Amino acid sequence: MRTIETLGDLRSKRVLVRSDFNVPLKDGKITDDGRIRAALPTLTRLVEAGAKVVVMAHLGRPKGKVDPAFSLAPVAKRLGELIDAPVTLAKDVVGESAKATVEALKDGEIALLENVRYDARETSKVDEERGELAAAYAELGDAFVSDGFGVVHRKQASVYDIAKLLPSASGLLVLKEIESLRKATDNPERPYGVVLGGSKVSDKLGVIANLLKKADRLFIGGGMAFTFLAAQGHSVGKSLLEEEQIDTVKGYIAEAAERGVELILPIDVVVAPEFAADAPASVVTVDQIPADQMGLDIGPESRKLFAEKISSAKTVAWNGPMGVFEFPAFAEGTKAVAKALSEGDMFSVIGGGDSAAAVRLLGFDESTFSHISTGGGASLELLEGKVLPGIAVLED
Ligand code: ADP
Ligand code: MG
Fold this sequence. Notes:
Layout: E1 14-18, E2 25-26, E3 29-30, H1 34-48, E4 52-56, H2 73-83, E5 87-89, H3 96-104, E6 110-112, H4 127-138, E7 143-146, H5 157-161, E8 168-170, H6 172-185, E9 192-196, H7 201-211, E10 217-220, H8 225-231, H9 246-259, E11 262-264, E12 268-272, E13 282-285, E14 294-298, H10 300-311, E15 315-319, H11 332-343, E16 347-351, H12 353-361, E17 371-372, H13 377-384, H14 389-392
Parallel strand pairs: 1-4, 1-7, 4-6, 5-6, 7-8, 9-10, 9-15, 10-11, 15-16, 16-17
Antiparallel strand pairs: 2-3, 12-13, 12-14
Helix pairs in contact: 1-2, 6-13, 7-13, 8-9, 10-11
The structure holds adenosine-5'-diphosphate and magnesium ion.
Adenosine-5'-diphosphate is lined by residues 197-200, 222-223, 240, 295-296, 319-321, 323-324, 326, 352-355, 376.
């Protein structure tokens, strides 16, 4: 992949950078700034090179319309604090304000365009529409640095199309991510385990077919587990369930058996009558989930089982919390998996925005894991062995 060095002397050059600033917000406040911190090495490098740095990023899903709830203002403020320099936020994506903001930049200064997903063309499936927006971005820069690892699996204007219009290179975060994730995918030390959880069930079910060809052990927790339990014939009450995927999942279970992949599912779960922090929790075995309750975490026996099978693996990739870790009563499963990874003697990779936030929120020392990825979907697709458009476009 082309590195920043290949762009030559950047002094006084306008460098467009795609970063991933899609941070979790609560009441307008950033609850985990990990992704902003992860972007600092590249931004600092460019500032030190005397470039005029123009950052493009998205936040949430404003669906192609201006929506103040998704403004990058909190990000601009936090970024300014972290790099200890003012960051100007343009009022639009490629309009008059963006142009004037870039025009006013001095060498070594940083500006941020407004949420690129305010413009519907950013994520359009129509090549011409994305191309048109990319051309407008290109007017604002002399070179492009792709550093938003969390979006490199997306064929979007600020990720993919722009790279074809300007001299382009991968940033330091993207380089580091690719290097670490390749360690887990190309020739992993075995046993190789993949732990899946979280609530984006349909997205993640899709990756299992490929993971079954690569992993020795597949752990399923979080919201995903209930579609598996249902496929095994258990009633799952009010738990998250993808009914139309049950047949597919039955296929995965059969294929895992054929391939000799060990499939590790919860044997007990923590249930509650509703999705709430103070909902009364109880533990049941998976064949006794009451019809009026929902599973919000893996149970104590499952925690033991998962931890044991994780600890004896040599490479483990983890994506998706084991339960609703945001509520302390349902955080134990996620904690147990994080602990096994943190204490284990293995190459450990954590992907997924919420999973990465969870280990920090639960107080784990980030340096006890081999790699915490800033990308969810992107890291999963790499683990699957897919070619990512935002990476391929940077390769010669
Ligand atoms: P990641 O961002 O790590 O890829 P997801 O976005 O797929 O993970 O899912 C994270 C969310 O999944 C968390 O907010 C967590 O509360 C939720 N979750 C985990 N287990 C369950 C469950 N059993 N039922 C409902 N939600 C769950
Ligand atoms: Mg998430």
